[in-house]
UniProtKB/TrEMBL annotation:
Name of protein: Agmatinase
Alphabetized UniProt keyword annotations: Hydrolase, Manganese, Metal-binding, Polyamine biosynthesis, Putrescine biosynthesis, Spermidine biosynthesis
InterPro entries the record matches: Agmatinase-rel, Ureohydrolase, Ureohydrolase_dom_sf, Ureohydrolase_Mn_BS
GO BP annotations, alphabetical order: putrescine biosynthetic process from arginine, via agmatine; spermidine biosynthetic process
Catalytic activity, as annotated: agmatine + H2O = urea + putrescine
Gene name of the encoded protein: speB
Annotated residues for binding of Mn(2+): 112, 135, 137, 139, 216, 218
EC number assigned by the record: 3.5.3.11
Cofactor: Mn(2+)
Length: 294
């Protein structure tokens, strides 16, 4: 799909029809080829778009509405089923094109491995990049059952690329002991269990820096987001996650892109997770897409 093609399927509420005049590009990465538990997140982007029709375009949190931002819904990147390596290359090429055109990339997954080529592309454009990562899991493995391309590896990959001290993980409540040890020994920041308060402490130290934000929906407790591939009890509330998105928006960091991943509609019988994700995307659009215009 060319960047300037209008998407013929369902589009996220309020999206503009023209790529050229857009400032933000919303896109999907429908891949779940490497999941270790339950597949289905490749259907996440489509369902998030579908339920967005039930959203208001106005955010009472930010006192902004979607008509204030020019954003284009490019649809989903066409990815070859089962071919993880080629899919990741296609995603990186796609993001390279968006960044070359001066667009703010906002992605929807898909499994968390899809964030790796996006972060890699953003790091090429912003050498001083920092990563804010919200998740239940560390995602710091080098491989899973012998496979280095796994949804359990993206944060390790970006940490090794830009330096562990430039990666800040929040809400973490699961991972191998070796992953936590590696993070500690290499100067990577991990906040266990909580997000908002430790995030508020970190944000001033990142003032002025380019920051990419990646959110795995399973940072939420399963009571708030049951529709995901690897549920993990003890998570944060949707209210705290919204407040965390807003804290980033109101800070002095330079958000240069973001994503929300791991929504799996097949396990979401009430559509609670998809509806939550849709609202989160709205707040990310309004908070981060307009972050330099507050």
């Amino acid at each position: 799909m060319r960047f300037d093609e209008a998407y013929s399927g369902n589009i996220f509420i309020g999206a503009q029809q023209e790529y050229e005049n857009s400032e933000v590009v919303l896109y999907g990465m429908p891949m779940d080829w490497t999941v270790s538990y339950r597949p289905g997140s490749r259907f996440g982007p489509g369902r998030i778009r579908e339920v967005s029709i039930g959203l208001e375009e106005y955010s009472p949190y930010l006192d902004r509405e979607l008509e204030e931002i020019n954003y284009f819904d490019a649809g989903d990147i066409p990815l070859p089923f089962g071919n993880a390596a080629k899919s990741l290359n296609l995603i990186e090429d796609y993001i390279d094109g968006l960044l070359a055109d001066g667009k703010f990339p906002l992605g929807m997954g898909g499994e968390h491995l899809v964030s790796w080529p996006v972060m890699k592309a953003v790091a090429k454009k912003h050498p001083d990049l920092a990563i804010i990562h919200m998740d239940a899991h560390t995602d710091l493995r080098t491989e899973y059952e012998g496979e280095p391309l796994s949804h359990s590896t993206p944060i390790r990959k970006i940490a090794e690329l830009i330096g562990p001290s430039n990666v800040y993980s929040f809400g973490i409540r699961s991972g191998m002991k070796e992953e936590f040890q590696w993070a500690k020994e290499n100067g990577m920041h991990i906040s266990k269990f909580e997000v908002l308060e430790p995030l508020k402490e970190i944000l001033p130290t990142l003032a002025g820096r380019p920051v990419y934000v990646t959110i795995d929906i399973d940072v939420l407790d399963p009571a708030h987001a049951p529709g995901t591939g690897t549920v993990d009890c003890g998570g944060i509330t949707s209210k705290e996650l919204l407040a965390s998105i807003h804290a980033i928006a109101r800070s002095e960091v330079n958000v240069v892109g973001g994503d929300l991943v791991e929504v799996a509609p097949i396990y979401d019988s009430s559509e609670q997770t998809a509806n939550t994700a849709s609202k989160l995307i709205r707040e990310m659009l309004l908070g981060w897409g307009l972050v330099n215009k507050k």
